[in-house]
């Protein structure tokens, strides 16, 4: 009888700890956890004129904005060095990398993107 009561207390304590940990997740942690699963469906993305390949003048960084709100960035010989999601509002773009890194940029015209201190040109 005594052993059974102790087992119940241990299970109850474990359950309480798990519930507390789940409740303690901040909205940012929840959003990050959802964003890091590449198999999850990406919500519909409003159309914008910037979908396509963007490249630095030396060709080292190639940044592809996909129509589904995801991006895929290659660096040198490293394909898909960074991946994540993005949102375009007007001429501003916000990025959320799958690893949790965030960045932004500005489309200064239809063929020029300023991002991370670099200039990207649209590749046609």
From TrEMBL:
The keyword Phosphoprotein does not apply. It holds the Pfam family Atu4866. Keywords: Signal. Residues 1-33 form the signal peptide. This is Agrobacterium tumefaciens protein Atu4866. It comes from Phreatobacter cathodiphilus.
